[in-house]
Write a structure and sequence with these properties.
By secondary structure, the protein is an alpha+beta fold. It contains 11 helices and 9 strands. The chain has a 6-stranded antiparallel beta sheet with strand order 1-2-8-3-6-9. A hairpin with a 6-residue loop joins strand 1 and strand 2. Helix 6 crosses helix 7 and helix 8 crosses helix 10. About 30% of the residues are buried. The N terminus is likely disordered.
């Protein structure tokens, strides 16, 4: 469940280095905050939020903490360059990027290939990471932090170039800070806490206000986001385990399995067993 990497820094703030097939040796890849990858050899199949992706040579990935990432087949010769940022650092780095188009791309296309000039830019960025190994730990962390910020700005320009827009990401305000707090809380508590009020209380806002903020910044209500997170976990458990619907319901603290089935059908349009056997 933990990232296993040949890092050039051993503390938990920001890491950069190289990894092999062992990166995907656990049933689920847990990302501490944000993980940037470039595959340099072999390939790995990943199921991310119930969608399948192939990470092969030259392909990039931006993975964030609230994604459900399940490794599939991984070739023995798989190799990648990586940069991993913890939750605190990721929250600060994400702060300037509030445009829905940016995050729609990240969540819909977490594994991607950049074309032409942007591909060369991203390759140059990853090639540069290995050159920082000669620096002191303190200097290396500061430089890596700045370089990840540069990567996100390049990614933003790449996304807007694909859409034909010259617009830059808008600056986030306190509302986005609340959204980040909500997402962090949800990542840690989704199995036990399913109500908007519980999260709103801990963020010191009303449930209505949290719902409005979510609709503005992530395009859906807080309740819809909570349900989507839980159902993503249910889907994964249905696909990779033999657990009964009742057991899954109990583990995720639903009132009963019938209620889980109703929520699952509302979100997916099918029952849990229909999803498992499709």
């Amino acid at each position: 469940m933990n990232l296993r990497m040949n890092a050039n820094k051993k503390s938990t703030g920001i890491l950069a280095g190289k990894a092999g097939a062992e990166l995907f040796s656990d049933a689920r890849l847990e990302v501490p905050g944000c993980l940037l990858l470039r595959c340099t050899a072999g390939q790995a199949s990943l199921t991310i939020n119930s969608s399948e992706f192939i990470l092969s040579e030259g392909v990039l990935a931006m993975l964030v903490f609230d994604m459900m990432i399940l490794p599939g087949d991984v070739s023995l010769d798989f190799k990648c360059d990586f940069c991993s940022i913890d939750m605190s650092g990721a929250g600060k780095l994400f702060f300037p990027f509030s445009d829905n188009g940016f995050w729609d791309f990240v969540y819909n296309t977490p594994v991607f290939t950049a074309e032409e000039a942007f591909g060369a830019l991203f390759d140059g960025w990853f090639d540069m990471l290995s050159r920082f190994q000669v620096l002191s730990e303190h200097s290396r962390e500061k430089i890596l932090y700045n370089e990840v910020s540069n990567f996100l700005m390049m990614l933003g320009d790449y996304i807007y170039s694909r859409s034909g827009s010259d617009a830059s990401p808008s600056i986030k305000n306190r509302g986005w800070s609340i959204i980040l707090g909500f997402i962090r809380l949800l990542q840690r508590n989704y199995a036990e806490q399913h109500t908007v009020k519980w999260y709103a209380d801990r963020l010191h806002v009303s449930a209505d206000y949290l719902n409005r903020l979510c609709k503005i910044h992530i395009g859906e209500s807080a309740k819809a986001h909570i349900d989507a997170q839980i159902i993503a976990v249910v889907k994964s458990l249905l696909l990779i385990t033999d657990l009964s619907v009742k057991t899954i319901s109990d583990e995720l603290h639903f009132v009963d399995s019938s209620y889980l089935c109703r929520v699952f059908r509302r979100v997916t349009g099918m029952t849990p067993l229909e999803f498992r056997h499709r």
